[in-house]
Amino acid sequence: MTTQRFERSGIHLDQSELLCTKGCGFYGNAAWRGLCSKCWRDENQKDKQTQIQEDWALAERLQKEEEVAYTSTHRKAPTQPAASAKLEEKKPKEKASKVKTVTKLFSTSTKTPPKKDHISGEAAPGSSGGPRHGPPDPDQATRDFIDFLKPLRPGREIFKQCRAFTESMFYKRELGVEELSECVQDFYHRLSDYLHTQFKGSSEQVESVMDEVERYMMSRLYEGVFCPESTDDEDKDLAIQKRIRALHWVTMEMLCVPVDEEIPEVSDSVVKAITDVIEMDSKRVPQQKLACVTRCSKHIFSAIRATKGEPASADDFLPALIYMVLKANPPRLQSNIQYVTRFCSPSRIMSGEDGYYFTNLCCAVAFIEKLDGRSLNMSSEDFELHMSGQAPGPPRPLASGGPPGASLQQVQSGLDLLTGLGVRQERVMEGARRLESDLIDWSQDVEHKVHGALGRFPPATEGPPPAAAAAAAAPSAIDADNVENDLLPPPLLPQLFAG
Q1: Tens of pLDDT along 178-211?
Q2: Contact assessment for residue 148 and residue 212, using Cβ atoms and an 8 Å cutoff
Q3: What is the pTM of this model?
Q4: Of 405, 280, 407, whose CA–CA distance to 336 is shortest?
Q5: Contact 187/241 with Cβ under 8 angstroms?
Q6: Taking the C-alpha atoms of 275, 276, 282 and 284 in order, what is their torsion angle to the nearest 10 degrees?
């Protein structure tokens, strides 16, 4: 019954749609075209290798063309030996510079400069740009990370690798955010393999270490990789905020959310869920943002359970999550989602409850972007009027669909019954009025005919005629009019016989 209601409202998501489209069993993500992070990286690597090969071929062809042009120019100017010598001297330098530039442009990563001056913020010798700022001084995140690693046998090696990689990321700012994400994900993968093979820790231990690695690294890299200027994340944030503000009139009943805010316990859970969605933007580490999504989801399940008296289903959860996002209208929603997608540890968003709830959040945002009148059981005209702020009253449900809530369904049924009774009563009244009109016409017609007959045959005003008076005075016989009475035989008389 509940599933049919949500299918009718257009807010229904089959659980198979949350999984990776490659069928690997992990959760997919809209940002990766429905793939999980592993399958996305595999697909992306194939595309990148193809692109790199094409770019290398183009670079080599351009270099050959330039060499041919240089050779032809050199042959045309034999009278300038000094200039030719300089050009010949300059040629290997140019070739070396071009090879170095091509390698930098088409390589997937950049080596860390060996000089310590770079880390302290001084400009590299021969660099054309201004001074580069190195990583910040050790902060609380670094101290917490060191304290966590002290009891571990490979703790020193883990910290060494993480610190070196984090410092190297400060010299890759010229790379796009997708390349930075790939570098981070590659490091996660390599370190996880190291912990499984060299450290030989259990899955729980490795997961715990990777959580702390992510916390340390992303606390230091946050300013440079969250919502960078090279992306359109900010434009997406403004677009979704504008969309949510335009949908301020949407209610729980329209989304088929089985939550009764009149119950104090339910109202408290709703407030906490909305707060968790807003709080997501204040966190700097992807796993902390995921924790906000998980807490919000658990509050939603608590609110539904307190309302229905039974555990919530997936069809109950998704509309409720959409409603919480609409009411929260969190800042930088798309940026936070993209940040988690790009830099969170893959194991967290590919499986487990964090991955499940995060995938549902991505679906909720997609539903909000595509929400229309049909999803809310409204006509397209009413939906557009409410979106533009021109609607004079509350939204009206479609006559064919009926309202989504159980109480509203009863109200609608009563209204339909009253409407039917009104139509029937109107038909009866119309028949009665028609019958009354016919009776009036008939009585008028009879009266007209009576008056006509009386006009043609007026009644006598004196006594009765003489013949009628005589007939009335003389007794009448039954056979008085029979002229053949004399021919009848006499009546039989009784006779006595002596016995």
Answers
A1: 999 999 999 999 999 888 888 777 888 899 999 9
A2: yes
A3: 0.58
A4: 280
A5: no
A6: 180
